[in-house]
Each structure stands twice: as structure tokens, then as C-alpha cells.
Design goal:
The protein contains 13 helices and 20 strands. With 438 residues, the chain is an alpha/beta fold. The protein is globular and about 65 Å long. The two termini are 22 Å apart. The structure holds inosinic acid (IMP).
Length: 438
């Protein structure tokens, strides 16, 4: 099959954006880690420690929530951009975990001085809101931290050393916090002295890593360094383009890169979308291809579908081509990487949702409204299963039925599945061609 040639200027940009094209947990961490070998700088542009990126390498498993998984590769620069909401305690835990494994991130890990800090009261608010009537968040304070950012009540690393500024900022934030916590949720108020104690701890943790990352990254780009932009979550959880309101509070789509890092629109080269060979989602919200039967249970067990951040079981279902086509369109995805292919091994038949029927009408559009998406009935194409693909490293040696499944997905999605993952370790990967950064 022939695919449209990516325009020349995009090939010339030495960068690769890696974005999730479903509801998160697609296995981006493995590809970020694997492909960072070919890059110089790896940057996170949104989200916070709600994310969980798992990497298996050299017989060891690492889980990252904030630091780009490229940190495991020697000498690579890792940037946490201004679009990220940073919990410094979570960052410190990750740094300690790296040090315990003989990796010192000092001098190659940078945190934006403009990132928003997750304050302890954001976590309390997230928890209180979830317990009242939530959407199934990770309770890590992500939503409140972004809400405070846009209400201009946020606190950033660059604010921590400015005594008068921080005094006033904390006071203003606490008026809002306590009117919710004590007023609406009947919980204990938070005192200013409590918060100022955390501010000092935050300051000590962040000081060695905090810089103007937009300037630093522009410097690297102007020197022709190869950049990877690492997305967290997935496009279907995007606050603008996902299944709103059952979404996270940031822009996992490639659009988030520009504002989340402060780079030129021309800095984004090829966009690689990551999908699982099936679909999962954690938390509440519509899920048209969800399987509530023994096949769903089998996929959950075999795919070890439990959240890397919260341990919650993930809901499982068939591949949804409608959702992924929407992600491809809104995120400008050029090529795909497919993970967990081997989890489907041994199934008699495998289904793919090609379009929906909503209120009796056939549609291939991902609805904007969650109630409409809830009413979507999936229409499936069925494929013959295969015996085993686990650990296969060469496309040609895959079972014919597996190749038919992949090629049918490419037809339905209109772009190539360039990379295939047939096991958790980075070595279990099939490359079907070159990336633009190669
Ligand atoms: P929040 O990001 O914690 O506010 O949660 C909002 C929604 O996004 C919930 O449905 C979460 O389960 C989901 N979510 C957040 N982060 C991830 C992730 O890394 N993977 C999958 N789902 C996520």
C-alpha cells in the first residue's frame, strides 16, 4: 500500500512528537525510551503525575510519572515544560528512584520556571470533588492545578523565591481553597503557615533543576539537535478534543506542544501516534467498544491492564477506528506505532469498530457531546485470529492473519502502522520503515 509522502519541510524538522491516540495508557513510554536513542532532547509538554509511563529494559521495570523516560538513556537531556503541572514531591521520588538505580539526572534534567506547581490543597480539592460527584480522576490534583492556572491563582517555580509575591499569591489562593474546602465540602481549612512550609520544601527540591526551558529548548533546536516531544495521556482525553467532560485538564494532542514548551510551530516535525491493538480506558465516561464479557476480562488479565499510577483496573474493548481517526485528524498524526499486539494472540476472532450508529444514523464522526457518544452503537468488522506473535521482531514472519489485521487497520485509518510492539521489552519491536528523524 502507498501512503502520502510527508511534506519535505516536515521531514527536515529534526523532531518527533509521540502522542497517545486513544484514552491514554497506549504504551508511549516504551517508544519514547526506545526512540530516545536517536534523539538528543526529550520533552514533556502537558499533564502531571497522573501519567504512568512504564519502561522495561535490561530485565528491569521502571515507571515514570513526570520525568521523560528518555532519562534512562545515557547523556540525553530531559525537559519538563511549562505546560506540565509539577508535584515536586513526586519529582523527588522519581529522582531518588533513578539515583537508587545508579542514574543521576543532575545537569541533564530541567524543569520550566513557568510550570504550574501542584499544591497539597489541589490534591485535597481533587479528592473532595471526586468524592462528591466525580469523573474518576487520579486524585493527583491535576484538574484543580490547571483550574488555578487559568484563574490566575497558580504558583510556579519562578515565584518561590519572591517573598512578597508568594505571600500574596498564597493568600489569594487560600481564599478560594478554603471557601471550597470548608464552605462547600465541609472539610478542614488549610492554613497559610502549612502552605508556606511546603513552599520552602518545594523550593529546595526544584532549585537545582529550574530554568527557562523555552529558551534552552530553542537553543537546542537552533543547533540542529534532535528533539522528542513526549505526550502523556491521549487525544481522547484531551480537554478540547476528547470525550468532554470525561477528560484530563490538558492538551495531550500535538497542539499542546507549542504552548506547553514555548517553541516555534515549525519545530514540530513528524507526529507519531501510539495505539494499542485494542482499546482501554481508566475512570468514567463513554466507551463505545467496551467489552463487559469474558473476552474483556481475558484482555485485561493478559495485557495486565491496571493503571501504572493508581493501580485501578482498566476497562477493555475492541479497537475503535472512529476514535483513532478523530485523533489522527486533530493531532496531525503522520504514522502509528501499535503496542500490545501479542495480547490478542490465540483469540478466535478479533473485531474492529469501523463506524457508529447513533439514534439510528450511521456516522464515522467522533461525537463532541458525551451523551451522544454514550448512545453510539459500534458497528464491527470481524477478523480471523492467529496463534502467536509474542516476541516476533520481523514483519514477514508474523502469522498471515495478524498481517491481515494490521493492513485492514491501515486501510481504515489511512496511515501506516510503522512500528509494532510484540512484548513489553524494547527488543520486542518490529520496525517496518524509517522515521523522519532517522
Ligand atoms: P485527571 O487527569 O487525574 O484529572 O483524570 C481525568 C481523567 O483522565 C480520568 O478518567 C483519568 O482516569 C484519566 N487519566 C489521567 N491520566 C491518565 C493516564 O495517564 N492514563 C489513562 N487515563 C488517565
Amino acid at each position: 500500500m502507498r501512503f502520502e509522502k510527508i511534506s519535505l519541510w516536515r521531514n527536515l524538522m529534526k523532531s518527533l512528537a509521540i502522542v497517545g491516540a486513544q484514552w491514554g495508557d497506549e504504551g508511549k513510554g516504551k517508544f519514547v525510551h526506545l526512540l530516545s536513542e536517536r534523539a538528543d532532547v526529550i520533552c514533556r509538554y502537558q499533564g502531571g503525575n497522573n501519567a504512568g509511563h512504564t519502561v522495561v529494559t535490561g530485565g528491569k521495570k521502571y515507571v515514570f510519572h513526570l520525568i521523560p523516560s528518555g532519562i534512562l538513556k545515557k547523556g540525553k537531556i530531559c525537559i519538563i515544560g511549562n505546560g506540565v503541572v509539577v508535584n515536586p514531591f513526586a519529582l523527588r521520588d522519581e529522582i531518588d528512584m533513578l539515583k537508587a538505580n545508579g542514574i543521576d539526572p543532575a545537569s541533564r534534567l530541567f524543569v520550566s520556571d513557568r510550570a504550574q506547581l501542584i499544591m497539597p490543597y489541589h490534591i485535597e480539592l481533587d479528592t473532595a470533588m471526586e468524592e462528591a460527584a466525580g469523573i474518576g480522576t487520579t486524585k493527583r490534583g491535576i484538574g484543580p492545578a490547571y483550574s488555578f492556572k487559568y484563574a490566575r491563582l497558580g504558583i510556579r517555580p519562578c515565584d518561590l523565591g519572591e517573598k512578597d509575591y508568594i505571600d500574596k499569591a498564597v493568600m489569594l489562593a487560600l481564599e478560594e481553597v478554603n471557601s471550597s474546602l470548608a464552605g462547600r465540602f465541609k472539610r478542614k481549612s488549610v492554613s497559610k503557615s502549612e502552605v508556606m512550609g511546603k513552599v520552602r520544601e518545594y523550593s529546595d527540591i526544584l532549585r537545582p533543576y529550574t530554568v527557562n526551558t523555552s529558551k534552552l529548548l530553542s537553543h537546542f533546536i537552533s543547533r540542529g539537535k534532535i528533539i522528542i516531544f513526549e505526550g502523556a495521556q491521549g487525544v481522547l482525553l484531551d480537554v478540547d478534543f476528547g470525550s468532554y467532560p470525561y477528560v484530563t485538564s490538558s492538551n495531550p494532542s500535538s497542539g499542546g506542544i507549542l504552548t506547553g514548551l514555548g517553541v516555534s510551530p515549525r519545530a514540530v516535525g513528524q507526529v507519531l501516534g501510539v495505539v494499542k491493538a485494542y482499546t482501554t480506558r481508566v475512570g468514567g465516561g463513554p466507551f463505545p467498544t467496551e467489552l463487559s464479557d469474558t473476552t474483556g476480562e481475558m484482555i485485561k488479565k493478559r495485557g495486565n491492564e491496571f493503571g501504572a499510577s493508581t493501580g485501578r483496573p482498566r476497562r477493555c474493548g475492541w479497537f475503535d477506528a472512529v476514535g483513532v481517526r478523530h485523533s489522527i485528524q486533530v493531532s496531525g498524526i503522520d504514522i502509528l506505532a501499535m503496542t500490545k499486539f501479542d495480547v490478542l494472540d490465540k483469540l478466535k476472532s478479533i473485531k474492529v469498530c469501523t463506524h457508529y450508529v447513533i439514534d439510528g444514523k450511521k456516522t464515522d464522526e467522533f461525537p463532541s457531546n458525551a451523551s451522544v457518544l454514550e448512545r453510539a452503537v459500534s458497528v464491527y468488522e470481524e477478523f480471523e485470529g492467529w496463534d502467536t506473535t509474542a516476541g516476533v521482531k520481523d514483519y514477514d514472519t508474523l502469522p498471515e492473519a495478524a498481517k491481515r489485521y494490521i493492513e485492514a487497520l491501515e486501510r481504515l485509518l489511512g496511515i501506516q502502522i510503522l512500528l509494532l510492539s510484540t512484548g513489553p521489552d524494547e527488543v520486542d519491536t518490529i520496525f517496518r520503515g524509517k522515521l523522519a528523524i532517522d
